[in-house]
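Incident review: delayed structure delivery

Summary: a single-chain prediction request sat in the queue longer than the usual turnaround. Root cause was a stuck worker, restarted by the on-call engineer. No data loss occurred. The affected request and its eventual output are reproduced below so the record is complete for anyone auditing the incident later.

Affected input:
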Amino acid sequence: MKSCHVFITALLGILISAWIFGSAPGLCNELRFTDGTGNESPLTKKPERIVSLVPSITEMLFALGAQDSVTGITYHTTRPWYAARKTLVGGFSFPSPAAIEALEPDLVFYDPFQLQGLSSFLPRDIPLVHAGTQTLQDSLDTLLLLGNLVEKQENARHLVAEINADLDWVTAKMKKADLSPKRVIRLMGREQIMTPGSDSFQNHMISLAGGIPPDFGTGAVVPVSKDQWTSFNPQVIYGCGSDREAADRFFSLPGWKDVDAVKNNQIYYFPCDLTCRASIRSGQFVKRLFATIHGSSLADERTLLQKNQVTQSNPIQTDVSCVQAAAVKQSRILDFINKSLVIQLDRPMSVLSTLEGFKHGVTAIGNHYIPPETWLLVHDQGLDVLKTQVFDVLGLAPDTTAFLFTGADMDHLSAAQERFKDIAVTVFATAGVDGNAMRTSRDSGEFYEPGTINVIIMTSHRLTPRAMTRAMITATEGKTAALLDLDIRSSYEQGRYRATGTGTDNILVVEGQGPAVLDNAGGHTRLGELIGKAVHRAVTEAVKKQNGITSDLNIFRRLEKRGISLHELLSEDLPCQCHISENMLIQKVETLLLDPFYRGFMATAMAVSDEYDKGLIKDLGAFEQTCRETAEMIAAKPLETWQVFVTRPKVPRVIAMALDALFNGAVGQGGPL
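Output delivered after worker restart:
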């Protein structure tokens, strides 16, 4: 019997254009694909140790259900939650060849941008494959190709169909609502205004979303002059992440401030992993951008493609004695998919909610997910209008219903139960902490976005009003403990402080029924203990599902949550005659942070920084000595000079000291990686 061999030995610069399934006599089934030169190369078995250096490809592999075949990723991949358990091989710009080789991959997906740095170091028997995602169609084709590669063909076809359905929906909605396209520009840049080129997938997505993109030339990114800006006169501007810096710098200046979008405050920001990737969520982003561009025009029920109605109901099993039935119901409201946790009680009872206060005679409680596409509509129309729409679709009476509302997806609902003898506490939680997490007493309340942590508490006994009220405090303490344990950072002050909540959190406590009446839910009582533990566990799980944040969060993302990117820390003029480029220095430090020892050093700096900011540490002399010793350990020699590399005022002092230690040590090493 002949054994199967992998025929690919080195595939440098391959752009996959077609996959062909076939077999050859005497060999096992082969996967054949044709490279850009027209040559066929066969794979005789499914790869089992994939390293993906391209976040959009990694997203696709995970969405296909092939996560077990992925061994290494870059730190830019943050979702779903199990991405945190994959081995990091560096960042997109500077992946570490040594880290890649250590994983012994049987396939590496790369971007042409990375090729020079990889081909010089990696052994020639590691296959490198470039799968295109430069256009939206590229991403759909690549998704199907990956489905063949990892033997998830049906999943791939389903994902492609979902993306196309979203795009078709936008086209149909534009036509039904008779909407006119608006001028839309993607904001980019720091020192000057820039935007994607006219041939980019980002401008294509603007067109698909009912917008008119600018044409300022081709290329990944092109500069925008003031004359071009005012001549185009954008009606809507959007960006992501630190694109706000360009807005802060330019939008108060003559000319730049005089366009419709700035004058009418039509400036929006989205997650960068939505705006900057042609991948599995492209259809979702086009829908969201469409809703942002056309706003209140979509509230007119005369433009509905389908009537408001429940489209799906998924029962939830629970042993809470007062529950008659529970389900997550999917509904279509204003043509957008909404999701609701609906819990029917077996008799009327009282509930206490931070949204409505005490309410009596309640027969149904729940938690409703507001999809991102409708956040602006809800903001404009108000919560009362939404409640009327939701209760009408779900067939619930407003007077006997108590709901919470959230921007966290009900697919990420978490349930936890804690027991002691005959007392049981059941908690249902949703949680979203990206975008509006805050630290009470430190941060200011400046905006509302429904990204809340919502908690519903039910018990096996009847609670008095006193116990219900006290349960609110205990639950809040449990929620805050979960956020502190996960090191969730405030969205203000560039994440300098640890968050205590999101500023829009809500809790609902059900009176319940049972063999006894409980009158106290404080932390020293058994009931309080169970509430605190159940809330902590449910919130921790919900944050993991919604935001991909766990205790395993990688050090690069923990820095990012503090507003720190190595690529944006250094100026072009390094503070020393280093004989090393800025890019090489960043690459060296990224490689250091792949080492558990130096990750631990940086994590220690973060912990010390929090205590220093609170005033619990007064003298940093010992830590300064640790920084110098760490730098000399990296350099493998005493350092005669010490340079200050991190000068940005918003970087906390302790973290700046630790980063300076890594930079000084990297310079002291000398030479290339």
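Verification: The chain has a mean pLDDT of 88.
Action items: add queue-age alerting; document worker restart procedure.
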